[in-house]
Amino acid sequence: MKKHFALPIVLTALLVATPSFAAETTGAGSTFVSPVMAKWIDAYKAKTGNTVSYQAVGSSIGIGLIKKAAVDFGATDMPLDPRELDKLGMIQFPIVIGGVVPVVNIDGIKPGQMHFTGEVLAGIYLGRIKTWNDPAIRDINPELKLPSTPITVVHRIDGSGTTFNWSNYLSKVSPQWKSSVGEGTSVEWPGGLGGRGNDGVASLVSLVPGAIGYLEYAYALQRLDKISFGVVQNSAGHFVVPDAASFQAAASSADWTADRDFHLVLTNAPGEDAYPITATTFVVMPKQPKSPERSAAAIDFVRWSLESGKTQAETLNYVPLPQALVLQIEMYWQQSLGPAIMTASAGSKR
Question: For residue 332, how far is the Cα from the chain centroid?
């Protein structure tokens, strides 16, 4: 097993491999992370023989399930407040970084051609901008031939971390959105069609000419035969193409040591090349679980994903966490979880 000699001796000792054991664990939550989670689960089982089951049911349901101890870990794209974590007796840490992108179904518009500002996106979702040839859209897309097609807004109907990051971004760039709708995993949408999960939104946008929705970037790339993603103006005034490089540019501004329990949101980050709707998936787990063995298996899977799953993340245009942050997370585990969990997690097959 890989060791980090920069860590304190006590943590290094806990991470030394002990006799292997067959392990299984269950998780639920974020659909945002589902594409890379599936890749990690397959690769981890091939390497260790250990089984991980993950339900992509949305961040809100995932958090509900971990609160009920119905799963061993929850995954959310909206970090929980440290005060809530204290009350729940839980820990929270990031696992991967990606992006939320606007997607459209407009005949003749190719991926990366359509430009959006935050104000225009808010205007569309507030119902103030109703057709694709509205002057507000034409002004920032002078080279595109935009139709008079009515805009059909598509949003999530389930409690969603993707919705949280989308609405959080709109709240930062549009005072009207902030005052009338606000942010959250679920909001009172002014109108539009609702889909369940990233897949549900992607399917609706694909089926409805003139539709607009928001997706995790990997889902958008899977549907380029039917829909196109747009570029969004960032806080520096630049229209930025979503990709791993622009997500990384946003992530580079983050100081993960400044906030308890890694409570940090990356939307509208500073930086010339930063993509403005960059998001993080967090894992939430109890400090004192019903089954220390299953929690140990979950920690081992996450550790493997952080240390050995970078290729799978990069292939899908997610941003793996930097090594310094991985070490910080491992120290956080040591400080927050009992030695029984940490010792057991070091004994799984590798």
Answer: 21
